[in-house]
Design a protein that fits this description.
The chain is mostly helical and about 375 residues long. The chain contains 13 helices and two strands; from the N terminus they run ααααααααααααββα. Helix content is about 70%, strand content about 5%. It has a two-stranded antiparallel ribbon. α5 crosses α7 and α6 packs antiparallel against α12. It is found in: Membrane.
């Protein structure tokens, strides 16, 4: 048991380290005069080609990893291709933003992600507007605005690129939710990379030909350092593999919590590693407000998922034994973040009585706050 816990924390630390390191690595490759590779589109394309090749070798040649079955032409055309296109857009615009703004400010702008996801989710019919959710979205937006106000060297071009990346990521998450809820297909990170990476590579290759290929040829940058770029691509693949390891040993929720910790690590360390990063009190104050809003958003989503799961379980049990009323003692549904011993406990004190009401007639299950 102790060995498993140690291994779990090791995987989480590996994810935080690789995720933070990859951000710094990309920034260094794109902005360093020694590497001389200011081509975010080309770098992202290289990552996707490298991931596609490694996924194929590991799953089809050596068969170390297994790709989940169930993919059809219809699902690939209607879900995987849009996901791949949005993923390519996210990485491309996000890496381009590093040419104009600091790493820490880019991370602060990414905190607006839940707002974009929620707005698009409402438009797609996947989310429902509520006063509490509106308050949380306002809190996150206010925090990001304060953090932006405190930025000393702000570049609006960089902000536009970063926000474009946020919109792309929000669309990708919406398509992912549609893939799971409406298509009924669940893919682990390795399977997702196997299907999405080639599609993303094609989506990146077309604009690369028109936007960066001629520039690279004109500046003679085909004489890049292959070892550095290969190592950078390998780190990207290792990061995706670490996500697979963390989820397989804990849950997707752990990635969310670890991601918040990673964001703070990136913000603070970037001030020490890069000369263009100058943090202010207003920066940190605004980012703290935004992160608090993100935590409230995750907590509310978690409660809704737990309440929905409890209703589904009770209805399933009643469908199997329709003539028998089963009373349960009040129970506590414990959802473990498995990180820093942070836990969320949702108490449902009248669960047994609600089951009785559900059995005799229609009853709307409330959502506890």
């Amino acid at each position: 048991m102790l060995k498993e816990q140690v291994l779990t924390y090791a995987y989480i630390l590996l994810y935080i380290g690789l995720s933070s390191g990859q951000i710094f690595f990309n920034k260094w490759v794109l902005s360093s005069k020694e590497i001389n590779f200011p081509y975010p589109l080309g770098l992202t394309l290289l990552h996707m080609v490298f991931s596609s090749m490694l996924c194929f070798v590991l799953t089809k040649v050596f068969k170390i990893l297994k790709v989940e079955e169930g993919m059809t032409t219809e699902i690939y055309a209607t879900s995987v291709i849009p996901i791949g296109a949005m993923f390519a857009m996210t990485l491309w615009l996000g890496n381009t933003a590093y040419l104009y703004i600091s790493v820490s400010f880019a991370q602060m702008l990414k905190a607006i992600m839940p707002v974009a996801v929620f707005i698009l989710g409402v438009a797609a019919g996947l989310e429902v507007m509520s006063c509490r959710m509106l308050l949380i979205m306002s809190m996150i937006s206010f925090g990001v605005l304060v953090a932006s106000y405190g930025e000393i060297n702000i570049s609006w071009i960089g902000v536009v690129y970063q926000m474009g990346g946020v919109v792309g990521e929000a669309l990708r998450l919406i398509f992912m939710e549609i893939l799971v809820k409406r298509k009924g297909l669940k893919l682990n990170p390795i399977s997702l990379m196997y299907y999405v990476s080639p599609c993303s590579a094609i989506c990146l290759f077309i604009p690369w030909i028109f936007l960066e290929k001629s520039k690279m040829e004109a500046h003679g940058t085909w004489n890049f350092q292959p070892l550095v770029l290969t190592l950078n691509s390998l780190c990207t693949f290792a990061l995706n593999l670490s996500v697979f390891l963390v989820i397989s040993h804990t849950s997707a929720l752990t990635i969310r919590v670890a991601g918040v910790v990673k964001d703070w690590v990136v913000v603070l360390l970037s001030a020490l590693l890069f000369a263009d990063t100058k943090l202010t009190v207003i920066n940190l104050f605004g980012y703290g407000i935004a992160i608090a809003g993100v935590a409230a958003y995750n907590n509310l989503k978690l409660k809704k998922e737990a309440s929905r799961a409890s209703v589904d379980d009770s209805q399933h049990a009643q469908s199997e034994q329709p003539d028998k009323i089963h009373f349960e003692e009040p129970r506590c549904v414990m959802l473990d973040y498995s990180f820093a011993e942070a836990k969320v406990c949702i108490i449902m004190p009248f669960y047994g009585w609600l089951q009785k009401l559900l059995h005799y007639g229609s009853f709307n299950m409330p959502v506890w706050s």
